[in-house]
Amino acid sequence: MVKYRSLGVVEFFGGGRVILIIDLLIDIAGKIIEHLIPNPTAKFEKNMIRLKDEAWFSELEKDYRYQYIIYNNRKVKRFLSNETNVKKIISMDLEREQFILLIKEEHEKFVGLRK
Prior knowledge:
The structure is a single chain. It is built from seven helices and two strands. Strands 1-2 form a two-stranded antiparallel sheet. It is 78% helix and 7% strand.
């Protein structure tokens, strides 16, 4: 009997259980590492949940022009993936205004490219 796992083909003859246990341990270790070192997409999504609670951000996100920039512009996504930046734009009016200006500028660049 042959079973396909993340490491490749595992054959269940004799030492198959040992290989299965090792494969299981590697899967568990991978999940632990994934949890301890989140990828940038996970950071971005976590920060987006946090920002959606803010009224000013919800209004900005509802505008289809800026929504596209927020979710697809590399510069904006990198900015929003940083937790320190998100804390600043939530708590400081000047930082918030600069962030909104960044989104509007990136939108103007995007629209300018399409013409």
